[in-house]
Structure formats: structure tokens, C-alpha cells
Amino acid sequence: MNKEQKLSKGEMEAEGNESYEYVLRLFVTGASPNSGRAITNLKQICETYLKGKYLLEIIDVYQQKKIAETEQIVALPLLIKTIPAPTRRLIGDMSDTSKVLRGLGLA
């Protein structure tokens, strides 16, 4: 079962994210072209390689500044993989599939 929504950290914990093999947070800047590409590319990668095993949270830093501050965001778009360990951070529009797969520990 996959679930893709915009959730706060508390809501993610309440949802029981431990039932997902991959928990991903994609930080974007509104409707910018890079953000749109990152969302599209990451959704395609997740549906191809992680179908049914992931939770993807998309966070617009313009709307949720506190989360961005907490995560110490320095560049966007930024993908943070929290589960499985170790935590990994990937910057960019997620167009390099092999790089994203390595970051997720799939290659």
C-alpha cells in the first residue's frame, strides 16, 4: 500500500509510517519548474521501483517554513529518505534515475 500526501511530521507518525519500507520527504519551492520535475520524476521512480512499499510526503517550504527550518534545508528540491536507515539526502530534480536509486539504496 502506498500513500502520497502532504502530511505533517506528527501526522506521519500517527499514520504508522513504520509499516512502509521507504519513507521519503521531498522538499520543493511552490510550483517552480524544478519542483514540478522533481515531483514527477520521483513519483515515476517510486511507482516503478517501490510500488506499494513507500510513503511520499511532499513539502512546499513556502507553506511549511518550520519543517524546512527543522530539517536545515540549504538547497531545493531536496529528497530525504528516513526509512530504511541510514538517512540520505538527494538534491536536484530527480532526473538522474541511477543516482536516485543509489540514494535509495536500490542500486
Short description:
This protein has about 110 residues and is α/β, with parallel strands linked by helices. Helix content is about 35%, strand content about 25%.
Write structural notes for this entry.
The chain has 107 residues and is α/β, with parallel strands linked by helices. It has a single domain (3-103), classed as Glutaredoxin (3-Layer(aba) Sandwich). It contains four helices and five strands; from the N terminus they run E-H-E-H-E-H-E-E-H. A five-stranded mixed beta sheet has the order 1-3-2-4-5. A hairpin with a 4-residue loop joins strand 4 and strand 5 (88-91). The protein is globular. The model is unreliable at 1-14 (pLDDT under 50).
Proportion of beta-strand residues: 25-35%
Shape: globular
CATH architecture: 3-Layer(aba) Sandwich
Spatial strand order of the main sheet: 1-3-2-4-5
Largest sheet composition: 5 strands, mixed
Q: Sketch the topology as an H/E string, one letter per element.
A: EHEHEHEEH
List the helices and strands and how they pair.
Blueprint: E1 3-5, H1 9-15, E2 22-28, H2 33-49, E3 54-60, H3 65-70, E4 78-83, E5 88-91, H4 97-103
Parallel strand pairs: 1-3, 2-3
Antiparallel strand pairs: 2-4, 4-5
